[in-house]
Design goal:
about 450 residues, two-stranded antiparallel sheet
Length: about 450
Amino acid sequence: MALFTEKVTPINFKKSMTCISHGARIDYEISAEELVLEAEDGLVGGTIFSFSYEKCTAEAGSRPILFAFNGGPGSSSLWMHMGMFGPYVVNGAGTLVENNEWLIDCFDIVMIDPVSTGYARLYREEAGESFFGAMPDALTVARFIRRWMRARNRGNSPIFLAGESYGATRASLAAYLLDDVDVRGILYIGPGYSSDWEPPRTLKDLIPASAAAWYHQKASQGQTLEQVLHRCREFLYQDYLHALIMGSQLDENRKRSVAEILSQLTGLSADYYVKHELLVSREDICKKLLEDEKEELGFFDTRYTQPAGTEDEAFSRQLGPAYRAGLRKYLREVLDLQVDRDYRYSAMDVNKIWVYESNPTMATALRTAMKAKPKLRVFFATGYFDICATVENTRFSVTHSGLPMERVEMHEYISGHMVYADDEARKLLTEDIRNWVNADK
């Protein structure tokens, strides 16, 4: 498999700008730059790219800094950059607008594009193993953060990490590796977070399956989403969990009764659940819920649909073009940033060869980091319509990771995997983060 390789001309861009954020006028400087990285053999292996937003203030040397990245692996920072953490965002209508809730009042913000994503590049194909794995990737990001802080004399600044989806692994491992840095907080958004003990997938998928059935009017009509979720969780932790534990010991009448409730919650037939041993399948929910209409649901946000059998994923297929166009417009018309290469939004070749295992695991890494750093707090944000990294997956995994729960916040939103892609959810999420950050002061 051919990886993306290219010799590049280094980018070094700076521009002073002004914004209105959270009701206040703020002067800031944006810089775009790349860091050249050595591979394990000591030769140049690739680059890591960043957009940095720094508030102009006399206290700059001690201001908090947020380092943010998406996941994939192989995803650029496009989604969080254009969805939440940049001075301009793509709104729900697909239009690029000024971000009036921008969090620049809380911390300076650095958007990171790992090797082979965005404007970052891989110089040599054989150097890929130095970057394309859970721990090599985290080491690269940790090295970038240290060098970024050292270059700006920011050693006194507390830092925050923000990781979306697979970025949860990157954030956990990076926090563990940054043992000499004041890591004050981690934001997990739509996190692909897992503990070292994981329950059956079906327990995690029932909530988003029920939310999807309610939204598409296939189940739970006449109820609010809040009522549906309350009923679903009561059933999940009582009758459903008991039935799964009983397995073949469960008598047929009881099995049918549980199947009927599953049908009422998720819209698939009771016969389907009897046949499938009472298991909820996220794949079948997406493909079968609207089967009569010849439609299928989005994986990242089940409110989005597309014709059955369509390639790609409904949410990304419909909203991705607007985010890509928004970034292009922002770079060219707002920043006037001239670059001699294309911005690579995603690198699926990286995703396919990635080494996911790590020692320590992400849960052990986070637990260790929180033990070593008594001020480190974490914030989890999930969306009810995300059937990829579900709200219940986060609840299960976080509560089985041995974390000090007094320093953990879990927030749930009426949104999907990219929580901020819903305008109202973005406003709520931003305000929750602002309150969370300010509580540390």
